[in-house]
Design goal:
Radius of gyration: 26 Å
Strand content: under 5%
Order of helices and strands: HHHH
Mean pLDDT: 90
Structural class: mainly alpha
Length: 102
């Protein structure tokens, strides 16, 4: 049963069917390109990790930061993370825990 607001295939004109088919083919082609790019990225990561010995996660993070031009934001986010983590979950935070458990 068709959902409200949707049409059946039989109600589409020949032109609409061709439009839909072209869109599906275009989406398929895009998905194929994305898949190929993902494979390329995996290959590049594996090759550089093997060649220079840098962890893939670090290379991926460096590339992502470079792509997004988000270095300053990433540094700031990491600073906040380190601050919260050190106060809450390391020995630096023990005074807070003992002060507030009573």
């Amino acid at each position: 049963m068709a959902k409200k607001g949707f049409v059946s295939i039989n109600s589409l004109s020949t032109e609409d069917r061709h439009t839909l088919k072209r869109a599906i083919i275009e989406l398929n082609d895009s998905m194929t390109r994305i898949s190929a790019e993902n494979d390329l990225q995996k290959d590049v990561l594996a090759e550089v990790a093997e060649r220079v010995g840098v962890d893939k996660k670090l290379v991926r993070r460096l590339a992502k930061t470079y792509y997004k031009s988000s270095f300053n934001n990433d540094v700031e986010q990491n600073r906040y993370f380190e601050e919260f983590y050190s106060v809450l979950l390391t020995n630096q935070g023990n005074n807070y825990e003992s002060e507030n458990t009573n």
